[in-house]
Amino acid sequence: MKKLRYKFVDEKLFALALTQSGADAVNNNERLEFIGDRVLGLSVAALLYEMFPSETEGDLARRHAVLVSTETLAEVAKELGFDKKIRHGHMTAGKMNHIAANAMESVLGAIFLDGGFPAASAEVTRIWRDLAARDAIPPKDSKTALQEFVQKNGGGALPEYEFIDEDGKSHSPVFKVRVSALGQSALGSGASKKSATSAAATELLKILQ
């Protein structure tokens, strides 16, 4: 199991990063998440620029989208054991990946405030390097991959997407999207309709394949 190497000067920042709004409506990790998202995005972009010097902007963008996705963030949070330390509310059914991903971004935001960008970026580079190296070729985004699979196996048909619901607070919404194809359907959720659509496509690909 990976461990966070950074040692906080202000331990309260780390505790705040692991406090979800459902547990404390005032003192929670939402503002830290806002910062952490930017720290992660730039750090991963710089890492990919270094690791794949011959790839185009489009190739790097596809890699970047996967590495900063809710699924990857939740995976890292669980690997670091943060999912067991998060203070969250009781209404978490179906949202734990989203909550874990937000906490991971918040921890990066907390490191930025505690030790500066170099410290936060160093943690991202160390943890994400192996994840970035997993794909020898740039991954296709899940929506494109699903469309190609369905067209190949369904006589040219296309997946159908349907917006289902929007939950959560206005500043931190959770969107739900359903996708249907080849007689099967799957749901996905995310902080935007785009990420929810991607999550739904990923889930349906798992079912169909």
Notes on the protein architecture:
This protein is of the alpha+beta class. It has helices spanning 11-17, 30-51, 57-67, 70-79, 96-115, 117-133, 142-153, 193-208; strands at 160-169, 172-181, 184-190. It has a three-stranded antiparallel sheet. The mean pLDDT is 89.
Q: Descriptors for this entry?
A:
209 residues, alpha+beta, 3-stranded antiparallel sheet, 3 strands, 13% strand
SSE order and pairing:
Elements: H1 11-17, H2 30-51, H3 57-67, H4 70-79, H5 96-115, H6 117-133, H7 142-153, E1 160-169, E2 172-181, E3 184-190, H8 193-208
Antiparallel strand pairs: 1-2, 2-3
Helix pairs in contact: 1-5, 2-3, 2-5, 2-6, 4-5, 5-6, 7-8
**Overall shape:** globular
Q: Major beta sheet, specifics?
A: 3 strands, antiparallel
The total count of strands amounts to: 3
Compute the average pLDDT. Answer: 89
Record the strand order, biggest sheet: 1-2-3
**Low-pLDDT windows of residues:** none
Helix share, percent: 55-70%
Q: What's the Cα radius of gyration?
A: 18 Å
Strand content: 5-15%
**What is the number of helical segments per DSSP (H or I, 4+ residues)?**
8
Q: How do the helices and strands follow one another from N- to C-terminus?
A: HHHHHHHEEEH
Question: What is the CA–CA distance across the termini?
Answer: 29 Å
Structural class: alpha+beta
In short:
This protein is α+β, with helices and mostly antiparallel strands and 209 residues long.
